[in-house]
Amino acid sequence: MAERAEELDIAIIGAGFSGLYAVHKFREKYKIVCFEAGDGVGGTWYWNRYPGARVDIESVEYSYSFDEELQQEWKWPEYFSAQPDLERYANHVADRFDLRKDIRLSNAVKSLRFDADTNRWHVHSENGDHVICKYIIAATGALSAPNMPDWPGRDAYTGEIYHTTQWPDEPLDLKDKRVGIIGTGSTSIQAAPILAERSKHLTVFQRTPAFSMPSGNRPLDEEHEREWKENYSERRAQILNTYGVSLIEYPTKAAGECTPEEQTAILEAGWASKSAFQLMVAFTDVMTNRNANDVVSEFARGKIRDIVDDPETAEKLCPKDYPIGAKRLCIDNGYYEMYNRDNVSLVDVKDAPITAFTETGLKTTDASHDLDVIVTATGFDALTGALNRIDIQGANGINLRDKWRDGPTTAYGFMVAGFPNLFMIHGPLSPGALAQMITSGEWQVDFVAGVIGDLENDGYARIDTTEAAEQSWAAEVNGAASHTVYDLADSWYNGKNIDGKKGGFMIYVGGFPRYRALCEGAVKNDYEGFLRS
Ligand code: NAP
After folding, report:
1. Are residues 242 and 142 in the same domain?
2. Rounded CA separation 334/347 (Å)
3. Fewest Cβ atoms nearer than 10 Å: which of 121, 272, 307, 399?
4. Sheet of strand 361-364: strand arrangement
5. Are 254 and 284 in contact (CB under 8 A)?
């Protein structure tokens, strides 16, 4: 029997925080559906349920602004919410706004095909659904396609393996187990101290050491909460006018304008600030001037050497090959202190890489390690991975994967030439992953809603962008990055965390106010860089 297609207006891909907001935003005017791969809502905060998973932006900020009652009524227990609280919040929002009836869980989108004759997208999902719709909102997440090491021998390994995005629901009994964790990014730095407490022995396999600062997480005090709730609307507006969509304390002085004593005082205050990322904004030029960055990097290395008792381990943990902040600054709860425990060891796999799983653990070029549990905290095929895992065929039969073979091309991070009526939220070359993602995501959804509203009002069937617009956006993105030290590390920001991935620097770091102005300017300028028909 031929499958029956449903005709709708909009298909939203992903029920993470941006996707949920998109469901809420679009459902009133349009017939919509939202496809979600997981069997629950919350995206990042649904998948990442490893021990210690916690946001590192204050929850009073890192929350929805679209509904005054919601933001007044919701109570966050801690400054930096743990994953269970964030997942609970996503579920609350889904229930409170009755979003679930438009969300199809455990139903990942498999392919998208644009029919240029009818100007409609054909969406096929894993469960066999076929939806025909005018618009696609891809809220697929910047960090949602896990990167799994593909060393040989995985099937031979007799222990348990978990990627941090696929953590089991039932508690793991690790007390008699030798656990190995691969990677030292934000995820591992959160998980490792807890795994060390729970296991017989923890081995951390480190390829590149990370810079981390203490999170200072604590219960949310009532005064702080009251103050935010009384001033929410002004603060949310203010947030959108900040560089990274966050009200962290921004500096007024460059490092060179301070005496060494002043520099130390500022850095000590930043370290103790209980506010994440304060080291990256200790001076105005930390991310734009290598000398200023060196001052901060050396300060952070000094902290590692102070905290870690064994000098050899401390030296191994000190990043020396890249500027602080060029790989995402990690925020921890006792990460460096963990290395003072007797049951933790650090294995450097930079010079002697892991080459294979064995029956009993892992093999590097110079040793074998017996492990009962292996945790792969090896990160993500970020920014492009989630979209590239869907088979997406645009207007002229071009496949997105082919188009992006040498790296992603977009206009403003939200459209790709040849893929009409497909809008990305937090897409590659948008500020998304380096901005506070809930508020910037809401802004992007609202912006796309404005574009769709204009198309409908003006009677257009489609909007596309052009290769020229993509090139000029690439120049803007590269220009912004070239004034910074962001590209001076191998990271998921530039795809160099994945073997063979091409792309260059994939995030817009010109600041959110400029980003908004450029997007809004293009629209006001009669959709400059876009083609409507
Ligand atoms: P990540 O930062 O990319 O770290 C992955 C780690 O795995 C790196 O240390 C990497 O080493 C290592 N690795 C990858 N492949 C390896 C291999 N074949 N052999 C040895 N080591 C290997 O990923 P993540 O820690 O999952 O974090 C990703 C992003 O998610 C963060 O940057 C952050 O934006 C977000 N996040 C946020 C929070 C939070 O809000 N608190 C928490 C977790 C994650 P190399 O550095 O050498 O590549």
Report:
1. no
2. 19
3. 272
4. 354-357, 361-364, 368-370
5. yes
Residue 321 structural domain? 154-376
Task: Please report, for the domain that includes residue 480, its CATH number.
Answer: 3.50.50.60
The rounded distance, in Å, linking the Cα atoms of 243 and 250 is 9
Q: What is the average pLDDT score of the chain?
A: 96
User: End of a domain among 359, 376, 393?
Assistant: 376
pLDDT for res 4: 82
Averaged pLDDT, 475-486: 97
Residues 389 and 371 in one domain: no
Q: Whose CA is nearest to atom 45 of ligand 1?
A: 208
Ligand 1 center to 447 CA (angstroms) = 31
Is the same domain home to 194 and 141? Answer: no
* CB of 185 closer than 6 angstroms to any ligand 1 atom: yes
In this structure, the answer to whether residues 354 and 246 fall within a common structural domain is: yes
Which ligand 1 atom is the nearest neighbour of the CA of 349? 20
Residue 286 Cβ < 6 Å to ligand 1: no
Residue 409 in contact with ligand 1 by CB distance below 6 A: no
Distance 55 CA to ligand 1 centre (A): 15
Ligand 1 close to Cβ of residue 354 (< 6 A): yes
Number of domain units in the chain: 2
CB distance 183 to ligand 1 below 6 Å: yes
Ligand 1, atom 8, lies closest to the CA of 183
> Is the pLDDT reported for residue 181 higher than 70?
yes
CB of 449 closer than 8 Å to CB of 27: no
Question: Does residue 1 belong to any structural domain of this protein?
Answer: no
Instruction: Report CA(376)–ligand 1 centroid distance (Å).
Output: 10
For residues 439 and 239, what is the distance between their CA atoms, to the nearest angstrom? 8
Instruction: Specify whether 293 is located in the same domain as 423.
Output: no
- 188 close to ligand 1 (CB < 6 Angstrom): yes
492 and 472 share one domain? yes
Summarised one tens digit per residue, pLDDT across range 376-430 is: 999 999 999 999 999 999 999 999 999 999 999 999 999 999 999 999 999 999 9
Q: Is 358 in the pocket of ligand 1 (CB under 6 A)?
A: no
Ligand 1 mean position to 173 CA, how many Å? 25
Which residues on neighbouring strands pair with residue 212, listed in sequence order?
Answer: 330
For the chain, give the percent of residues with pLDDT over 70: 99
Q: Are residues 360 and 431 in the same domain?
A: no
Whether residue 363 sits in one domain with residue 325: yes
Count of beta carbons in the 10 Å neighbourhood of residue 405: 11
Q: Which of 376, 410, 445 is the last residue of a domain?
A: 376
**Tokens read off for 333:** 């709860």
Tell me: the pLDDT tens digits for 335-357? Answer: 999 999 999 999 999 999 999 99
Q: How far apart are the first and last CA of the chain?
A: 36
